[in-house]
Amino acid sequence: MIKLQEIDFSYSSVSVLKSFSYEFTAGKFYGIFGANGCGKSTLLKLITGELKPDTGNVQPEYKTIEERARTIGFMEQQCPEQIPLNVREVVELGRYPWRKSGQLFSIEPILEQLNLTALQKRPYNELSGGEKQRVMLARVLAQNTPVLLLDEPFSSLDVGNQHHFYSLLKNLAKSGMCVIMVTHDVFVSRKYLDTALFLKDGQLYIEGAPETLFTDDLFRDIYHV
Question: Which of 132, 139, 218, 224 could form a disulfide with 94 if both were Cys (CB 3.0 to 4.6 A apart)?
Fold first, then answer.
């Protein structure tokens, strides 16, 4: 579904990714881990096309921005602080790439899944940080794309909500979506992921099932703890 081949990427003279290759497939929930600066967020931006590799290639390529927006939904690390809309209007922005398609789609189930139904008329600017994260996830789910990318999506949520939303993402993957999440959460997320990838020094260090991969030795190698 998404194939990266021999990717090199640098910011000016600083090398971030080196000879990175990997293929993400449909129907799986992936977690990308690694120390700060190892290239996790950069990898997501290469997949979306926001960044272009110095060498190597990312497949598929998209002919238009609209085609890409109908294929990839991306929840970024930082939620916007101010949006002059209410919750429902923000979520409905996710339907913008489909505005000319005539496709019928209801956002009601998404509002319900993310516990936003009662908040849908609230101004976005009045929400807490955790509530804004829920709204941004709802907006990206409203895009109804086969690929979902998330960059540290639940940093402001309590543990109970984290379990709820990881379970939601797991079910989306089971339904056939390719879900790729960058996170530092090695505790809660491991219960839900199908595959974990650890990056180190801009390269894929190791990948596999969390239940076998997550060891004290690995964490010492990656995080030096």
Answer: 139
The amino acid occupying position 172 is L
Class of the CATH domain delimited by 1-71+147-225: alpha beta
- The Cα 135–Cα 115 span in angstroms is 10
| Per-residue pLDDT tens digits for 8-20 | 999 988 999 999 9
Question: Which tokens go with 48?
Answer: 């979306």
Give the C-alpha separation, 39 to 63, whole Å: 26
Do the Cβ atoms of 8 and 54 come closer than 8 Å? Answer: yes
157, two tokens = 């949520």
pTM above 0.90, yes or no: yes
**In the chain, which segments carry CATH 3.40.50.300?**
1-71+147-225
